[in-house]
Write a structure and sequence with these properties.
The protein is an alpha+beta fold and 107 residues long. The protein is built from two helices and three strands. It folds into two domains: 54 residues, no CATH class; 42 residues, no CATH class. Pfam families: DUF6788.
């Protein structure tokens, strides 16, 4: 263990480093435990969101029109500040698309 205080990671904002620098050892240990728990929670939420997105894509793939190949994937394109779903796939050297519908069904 060094006699010098540790260097904060460059990824941490300076105001956070300055704020916690004066905290007691007990407070710092509570922050460390909370930070680990919060990171695990957020990672879990991200995994669930990714799984949900994957499920949505699988459900969308079941809705493929007859003239769209099974390898097509849903893609979002923004046109004139509006967002639309398109089926998109590669056909040789070309990328082909077919309109699916608006991202926001109210549009």
């Amino acid at each position: 263990m060094s006699d010098e205080p540790p260097e904060p990671p460059a990824e941490l904002p300076n105001d956070l480093v300055d704020t916690i620098a004066d905290y007691s050892t007990d407070q710092l240990r509570h922050i460390a435990r909370y930070g680990e728990a919060l990171a695990e929670y957020k990672e879990r939420e991200e995994r669930l969101a990714e799984k949900s997105d994957d499920d949505d894509i699988e459900k969308s793939a079941a809705d493929l029109p007859d003239d769209v190949p099974a390898k097509a994937t849903p893609t979002i394109k923004e046109i004139n500040d509006n967002r639309y779903y398109y089926w998109q796939w590669r056909d040789g050297d070309q990328i082909k698309s077919k309109y699916k519908g608006p991202v926001n069904p109210d549009e």
